Model the fold of this input.
Amino acid sequence: MASEFAPASPSGRHRSFWLQQIAGDASDAPPLRGASRADVVIVGGGYVGLWTAIRIKEQDPSCDVIVLEQDIAGGGASGRNGGFVLSWWPKLVSLARLYGPREAVAIARNSEAAIDEIRSFTERHGIDADFRRGGWLWTATTDAQLDAWKSVLDVCDQMGIQVFDRWASDEVARRAGSSVHRAGVFEASAAIVQPARLVRGLRRVALGLGVRLFENTRVVRFSRSRPVQVKTAEGSVVADRLVLAMNAWAAGVPELSRGLAVISSDIIVTAPIADRLEEIGWNPNLSITDSQTMVDYYRVSREGRVMFGKGGWTIGYGGRIGPRFDRHPGRAALVTADFHRYYPKLRDVPITHDWSGPIDRTVDSLPLLGYLGGREHIVYGVGWSGNGVGPSVIGGRILASLALGLVDEWSQHPLVGRPTTGFPSEPIRFIGAHLVRGAVMRKEMAEAAGRAPSRLAVALAKLAPAGLEDKK
Ligand SMILES: Cc1cc2nc3c(=O)[nH]c(=O)nc-3n(C[C@H](O)[C@H](O)[C@H](O)COP(=O)(O)OP(=O)(O)OC[C@H]3O[C@@H](n4cnc5c(N)ncnc54)[C@H](O)[C@@H]3O)c2cc1C
Done:
């Protein structure tokens, strides 16, 4: 593999290409030291925590909001993701199973509106997040993946809505820039962003609204009592309400642990090659995924770099998320192999950056929001399952309404109060997840090589969580 891997960040932590691009955009907020008080404390300075802080301040400027972040704001998944801004249209089958087709369509429309909201919010606040609405191409790259979208399109047909266009196979191959793409459907509402610019822009807006942010401040425990006592490494806060917006790290919270399985997602980025992409016909505004359970997702950056990612190589144990979730050269090599398989004409292009991040998968790949253990003063929004850039806008609205004790369409949203169970406890979950992941890997590798997978691998692979898309 041709590589010139990026150096670690000055703080010693390996950063995504996106965060490296904007390194030094603002100095770190100070860590929390000593005892403090607030109306609302939010744990987590990613999209969900920051959207929540912003929506609280917009509705009640007098509310004293503290955000506690163990890293820098955006140091988690929000500054490392693929920048796909997707709706929940591909989750229509799961949504319909939970709430019926009519409500499912309403929720999916909500998620489409969230994409518009990111566009208008970033424009209004001068956040240069490189928002480009080029739509999402959901493709099949093996025989086994053909028609993966059938059940989602069936619900659309049943409801008389047309959000997916079936493209002819030659058009799919042409616009994706490679004949490996055999078929696909196109959904026009999706966009792409430079994800770190978005989260750091939210940080700036939140600070401007008077949110008190403490970075490099890890929450080590919190009480369940009211007011809630939050203990950090060097300080403490007493607050009326607590919001948990900790993404995969929430798997370490006992009340949420059985609702989440932590897996890695790994990304590589190439040198800028805009001319080469034009030659092969890859539309640079498209977001593209295949239909594997260990999904491949890829797009082009503003500078004409290819960003290629893959989900699912590593499994976390509970909420323990160590350095192998920041970067893993071995996994980067495997992602590179997939990139080369999909784009053989780009084999000679140098890979300049690679990194990883944790994904908070739920059983149905829809988020979990609600009151922790039924306590109205502690609310959570986790389980974005690899589709959090767009949906975190909805998460922020819901969590703000819950934290402010409002009775409105957001606090009453159907996604609030879903069971936070679904996975077995550790160590069974860890062992089971390895078995299933191994089967998925064997099955998808066999399919990619044009071989029939074993029946055992097929059977075990069916136990994997639904994923980004509800398939077949
Ligand atoms: C590699 C990768 C690619 C992805 N690609 C896409 C994509 O293309 N499109 C998409 O929609 N989604 C994607 N996702 C998912 C998306 O990034 C997330 O769903 C989204 O960022 C969730 O936002 P969040 O605020 O919940 O999480 P985060 O941004 O992770 O924020 C949670 C924060 O909580 C902090 N925290 C945790 N525990 C503590 C503690 N004890 N004390 C203090 N702070 C704490 C963490 O440091 C972190 O910054 C991807 C994720 C990864 C990892």
Remarks:
- The radius of gyration is 21 Å.
- The chain has a mean pLDDT of 95.
- The chain has three domains: 33-76+196-259+364-404, 84-192+264-315+325-358, 428-461.
- Residues 101-124 form the longest helix (24 residues).
